[in-house]
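In the design runs reported in the main text, the only information available to the sequence generator was the tokenized backbone. The following block is the verbatim input for one such run; it is reproduced so that readers can re-run the procedure and compare outputs position by position.
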């Protein structure tokens, strides 16, 4: 990624915590209020993730990126030069790569790059991610993520 990405670790920490909540789904006590959040999807193969990306991008009104398998096993990433989301092979990496939160994160990178030209995890990325989450998982899931970002001091 070009430029300084000073918020990367904080965003990852907030999203990891949020993703763990989505793994369980259901009722969440949020500062005395009851929220109901969905259980995140887990895609069993690359085609299922591709289909999901197509649907989400249609929903938010952006052209869908290519989705391809990635050789490495440690992370997914977005390639701006080819508008490609690269996801580790779900069969060999286990379930983490096929989690909905991972795919939404990469969709947010795609959207942010198309609209702002940015690849960092700054304010524009977080705004895109919150919009994508609100549209796909609902406002309560987005509220939890926003609180995670705020708690991780993503200014």
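Verbatim output:
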């Amino acid at each position: 990624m070009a430029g300084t990405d000073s918020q990367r670790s904080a965003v990852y920490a907030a999203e990891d915590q949020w993703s763990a909540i989505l793994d369980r789904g259901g009722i969440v006590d949020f500062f005395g209020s009851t929220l109901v959040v969905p259980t995140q999807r887990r895609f069993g193969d690359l085609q299922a993730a591709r289909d999901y990306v197509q649907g989400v991008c249609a929903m938010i009104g952006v052209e869908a990126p290519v989705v391809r398998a990635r050789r490495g096993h440690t992370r997914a990433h977005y390639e701006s030069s080819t508008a490609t989301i690269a996801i580790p092979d779900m069969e060999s990496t286990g379930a983490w790569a096929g989690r909905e939160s991972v795919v939404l994160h990469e969709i947010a990178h795609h959207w942010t790059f198309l609209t702002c030209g940015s690849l960092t995890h700054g304010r524009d990325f977080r705004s895109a991610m919150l919009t994508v989450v609100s549209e796909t998982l609902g406002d309560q899931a987005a509220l939890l993520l926003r609180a995670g970002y705020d708690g991780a001091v993503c200014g």
